[in-house]
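Q: What structure does this chain adopt?
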Amino acid sequence: MKKYIFLILTFFIIFISCVNKKEEKLFSRLSNNESGIYFSNDLSYDDDFNIFTYRNYFNGGGVGVIDINNDNLLDIYLTSNLNSNKLYLNLGDMKFKDVTDESGVGGMKSWSTGVSIADVNADGFLDIYVCNSGDIEGDNKQNELFINNGDQTFTERAKEFGLDDMGFSTHAAFFDYDKDGDLDMYLLNNSYQAIGSFNLKKNERPKRDFVGGDKLFKNMDGKFIDVSEEAGIYGSVIGFGLGVTIGDIDKDGWLDIYVSNDFFERDYLYINNKNGGFDEVLEKQIRSVSAASMGADLADINNDGYSDIFVTDMLPEPDDRVKTVTTFDSWDRYQYGFNNGYWHQFTRNTLQLNNYGESFSEIGRLAGVEATDWSWGALMFDFQNDGLKDIFVANGIYRDLTNQDFLQYVTQDEVVKRITSANKVDYKTLISYIPSEPVSNYGFINKGDLKFENLSLKLGLDEPSFSNGSAYADLDNDGDYDLIVNNVNMDMFLYKNNSNKMYPENHFLRLILDGKEGNPYAVGAKVTIYINGEKFYKEQMPIRGFQSTVDHRLLFGIGKNKKIDSLHIIWPSDKISVVKNLDVDQTIIFSETDLEEKYDYEKEINNKLFFELDSLGPINYKHNENYYVDFDKDRLLFHMNSTEGPCICKGDVNNDGKEDVFIGGAYGYPGALYVQQRNGKFKKLELNVFQKDKNSEDIDCEFFYANDDDFIDLYVASGGSEFSEFSTGLADRLYVNSGSNDFMKIDKILPNDKFESSSVVEVSDFDNDGDNDLFVGIRLIPQNYGLSPSSYILKNDGKGNFINVTNEIAESLNKIGMVTDAKWIDIDNDKDMDLVIIGHWIPITIFENRNGKFFKSENSSLKYSNGWWNVIEYADFNGDSLPDLVVGNHGLNSRFKADKQKPILMYVNDFDDNGDIEQIIFQYNGDESYPLSLRHDLVMQMPILKKKYLKYENYKNQTINDIFDQEKINNSIINKVFDLKTSIYFNDDSLNFKKVDLPVDVQFSTTNAISIDDYNNDSFKDVLIGGNLFRVKPEVGKYDAQYGLLLLGDKDGKFKKMTSIESGINFVGQVRDFLSIDNYLFVLNNDEKIQTYQLNNQ
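A:
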């Protein structure tokens, strides 16, 4: 018996031990007792000073990492809004001591915000600059500069240095913008004016606000002088700066500035003009920005040697938060902001991928980092020394003013009466109604290939909090970055990094840079490590993130590599150090002194494959899109279908041996015929026949021989979503060539004697009777998006009369779905033409030609290929004599996500029984599928739901089964999307297709145009891609990250992307089609000028 009792007790003890044993995390949070840091940024409020009288009340404090005594143990400075700032001396082994009082850095002013650590007086000791704010009416908010005395004490000398600014300061960045050898300073201020008091039609940006406004200070012999105006720095009352980030963005040796602005003002991108000032170029280089930009960081996330930009915003990730605290601009509000100069702003984090210093592609949605809730700190650093920079985001707002139920509640009459009396507001009561919900910070692991995964739980960073400023630093000198986070109304977080234990196979190299006099810490230096063809790039710029400063020593994670091939340092003086064959896991000190060689920043002139002709190219044409808002009719859709034109096609209309060009117009604009001249230029023919048809939307066109004469004719497909089913503007047009530079329109409603929205026309003699027949695809049923239209095969009688034979030879084309493109291809190599069709919400579909009749192929390899397909082309890429397919899709840089297990769903029905159908789109968020539409949008469209969803809280986590009864669901049409990737499908001899992924850059945006050719003359087919879609709802944000992409093919059918600096390609907007004539490549853009490129034959 005793034996059994002993065994039971043993088992129990082991069980309890296993339960209590914590899983080791990459980051371990140290308690106050363990670290010796007792700090909480505690905020109380009263009726005079609170979130309603000072809008930045809960923005929080910053973190500064500093070595105050040069003992190589990094100390921590934390700012407090209402109480004393604190300095903690590093005693070693992650133990700290509060030395605030004896060092004299507690601060005497109100409301400290950002902290900047820099050697301001260049004596070799780091100093502390603290930004102050919050004193609304008084004069107690001068910024403070604590100069390090070298004996662990500091003296406040801001006024002496000219840095006692009295604006509502957020943060300051010290850097040498003019390359004179000392540190200058950019001061980020936040406007004092109430948001509701602005007239957005007044352009305040160029007007300098001398009380506040951002400022640039030039260091002149130790005195800082405001040179903002002459340097081209905006300092207006609409500057709501929350982040300032410095780096050499274009790698020309001169430091540039990115400023993230909150509220309605757009961000600023200042490129150094090398002449004492800056050019603000955001609208030239960045197509979309965050709407409520907060913290920002600059770092190279893809190891290409260029710094990318990450900016935080306020978009939540889980459905319950999206549905209860989020609202988006309407289309009209978004257009109002854009038309008044505030650019394209969208509620989400943005990750701007640097296109080699020429432009940026916003890829936050593709990377998976766009939604992290109410976010502040943004830091990009290598968590585990694997050589890839990860992303940390600090989150939380102590009182969430965006809670939609709170906003509804406090506007009710009885509540207004309760909190107001005698024209005075009871702010304490009002604030008590605002929800306070801590949220987890985010830790994104860089998976490579521009993909990130939030692993905050696994990393140990998931504790719900109200976090703001944050900084990374190797506090225990063990070769990895630890993390410090400043929180509101809760203890700060100190995380020890356990990489050296959990990932001992990963190695590091730490650099201490010894700069020249005036800049002892070599701020602005650039370091690149080369190992086995890989590069690892960092810039020495410790002031970064939100209101914070990180470790001034550069620590490189280099993964499993055990040897460094070479290390290159470009110093602020442009001198260069090169060291080869370095060991890993060590700290090395490099000095800027006694160097001779200078780095040559003059960019090598590449022999680019294409060069763009100027605006006076062969064809002088600009497409103008008509104004129509699809969302006024279809309120629950997210993308406009009215901007899918124009079209372009070629043919020799006058039989002179030269190809001529037709370009279609939007509604209200006629198509145009351009005849090629002897000198290669094109002359527009003014033809009345096209003018008469200007009230059609030209979506596709094809020159072909329709009748039995010798003159080429023209078919134009009319489409768009702005027409009713009774509109004559939807009739396709067949123009017969008269032979005298004129055309006559055939008097017939094509393709099927009724008005339909066409998308594509394709020509083929499918029946081999010697004349050209047509396939015409139908895009949508007018005013009934989501229902499935039919498409048609038109047989030519040999005289140019076209007869609809669909029912006789291709019955499955009836109600085939929303077709966007098609190709006649002998897909099975049986010497007859088959038909391949693509579209939105439908799979890639093959119709096999069997003795002149077309049968829908039940192809298992394409069964789950439903996508938002836009364009299809084909070629034999792998040399097996079978046509392979290149199919352009929506892409992955989108709020929309889909796969076989978790498709996008669109339910179509007259849900409210009012005679009109609604389209409700559902998408998976986690393991359940929820409507993308917010409560107010759904209720506006279907008021019958208002009683069911009186509160936003009731609408969260609602599935289709929660919203509608089963009968409605059963009677609904359900469209599905499984795949959003642009891909290549390799064909085998049994009509099975193998889907092959293309380089990730292809997925940056929608793909609307594809051209296949051997552009580099290596005998292998290459693929040129163009895309983008701008007219979409702000809540999904426009698709604009594609600047054109050339993929070079090889003998195995594999593709390698050509960079823009190699290809010379830079497409300006929404590409709709390509056309090649001789050595010219014409790029047709929606609502933009046509671009012309010429192949470089050298």
